[in-house]
Amino acid sequence: MSVENAPVVDVDEAAIPVEKKMYYRFESNDKKEFRVSELAIQQSETLNRLVEAMGYTSEDVENKPAIAIENIDGKTLKLVFQWCEHHKGEAIPVDDGSVPKIVEIPEFDAKLMDIDNGLLFKLIWAADYLNIVQLLNVSCKKVANMAQGKTPAQLRRVYLLPSDEEDEAAKRAAQEAQDPRAREVEEEFEERKRQGGNSFF
Amino acid sequence: MGLLYSKPLEIAINSLSSFFNLDWSTEWSPTPQTFPLFRLPLLAWLEVFRTLDPIELFILSQSSKRVANCVHIVGSKKWKLTVYVGSKCIIINGKYKLFIIETTQKPSRRYDKEVGAFFIKYEDIGNSKRELQDVLAQLQTAFRCPVTTFYYNNVKKKNQRWFPVLKYIIQNQIQPLESLNIEGTVKNKHLDWALQNVRVTRIISIRLFGMLKFTGNFQPICERFSFFSTGTLRLDLMMLKSCKLIELKISRLTMGALNFFMKEWKAGSFPNLRYILIQSGRFNWRDHILGFDRYDMEELGVSRRLVIDKNLSIESTGGVDIHADNGRKATMQMSTGSPDWFRLIVWED
């Protein structure tokens, strides 16, 4: 197990209230360990509820095994916790349901998300899984920005969307896989039509 | 319910479910240029949709039928479309503009972020009403939202493209329009059809130029009814009983007809009416209205203001105060010079 002993970002001790000065330990699915402040954890509804339910003391945090986050790898989790530490103490935005949703990407977040699309993809999954509302907002905004100025054909390429023809072909393939006889029946029907018969029976 | 809205919700949900893939596997090979939108969790791609503006969302919806079938989950059913037939423009939520441009070149699309408008260039095939109708159909298929406002403004008689577009809208949505505005030269039979068949909740505004005569036989159920005609306009005021505001300019109403109307109002036949303005070339000085002559009703004396709503208030000076049988107070006013007009202002208390 590789352990990253230091917090993922520098902590301003003065800025953190004494009673909040507890660091939890989390472990990614590739066995990377992270220490995250209690205040930063509050950005994640999932983790916040988890640690509240666990009711760990400072001793428990040190003595018990790190809390495992099974489906997020270390590289992604590092980004997540860096984001949480940077935004700790900030209010969690409340969705007013308006469309289009106005989301500004702060400079720190833009730099944090200056990553390849594969990692961005994982970061969004992680933000969704850990229920980090604002991280989900900014990361989805980054994906939405990819649509700017694109034509429908370009959007198909960018977002890997199947065309109508590809959808049709996939649907036919799925039907055939489900019922191999269907194709034969269809061919037989076409053949009878060609021969001038108007009834299948 | 029209065809555009008849697709059951389950089909939409099924189409969404087919996109929603919880598999974390790495079938997708990440490249700098691509991002597998629909391999994100449902909430995440919904967030992506929600941060796109309606025009970007519309362009996305044009990428495939499946996408067109699911963009409405952002809640676009509540959106409103305004159709400007004359300028071939559709505005979404009063803000996002979509222009349709005829071109001899291959059809193309361009989104100008600075102007905040989307331009669709269509090949000119000599049937220009089709493009607007087609784009409208695509928009409504994607967003499943109604047209709420319809504008037509054109003085060329041969350009009657407004009518098939309006007919298409009315035949494909159950929601009434909020506002119907027709301005220009239109065929009597088209206008008659529109006034008979289009349900409007707030404003009907008709301004006709160059039509010789129009006889209206319809009963609008809207708040505000405004009709202006340079030709002869015959309307039965009794058909306008549900309106709150009525403006008729250049009508053929006589003082006798006005007197009859006022007797009906006094008896309580126009419970919603707050304001009526009638201009007519047939008012005389001889006849009276409810026993008052034109000098009794002239604009001299105290000024008052009637606030209809936040956008509209009417200044009133002088006139003669009257009471309806139900105690409602009102003021009748009449011009003593050209143009000839009559006003009734009904006070709240």
From TrEMBL, chain A:
Region (Disordered): 166-201
GO BP term, example: protein ubiquitination
Residues covered by the SKP1 component POZ domain: 26-88
Signal sequence interval, chain numbering: none
UniProt keyword annotations, A-Z: Ubl conjugation pathway
Cited InterPro entries: SKP1, SKP1-like, SKP1-like_dim_sf, SKP1/BTB/POZ_sf, Skp1_comp_dimer, Skp1_comp_POZ
Keyword Transmembrane helix: no
Sequence ranges assigned to domain SKP1 component dimerisation in this UniProt record: 134-178
Function (record text): Probable essential component of SCF (SKP1-CUL1-F-box protein) E3 ubiquitin-protein ligase complexes, which mediate the ubiquitination and subsequent proteasomal degradation of target proteins. Regulates cell proliferation during embryonic and larval development.
UniProt-recorded name of the protein: Skp1-related protein
UniProtKB/TrEMBL annotation, chain B:
Pfam families xrefs: F-box, FBA_2
The F-box domain, residue ranges: 34-82
The name this protein goes by in its record: F-box domain-containing protein
Organism this protein belongs to: Caenorhabditis brenneri (Nematode worm)
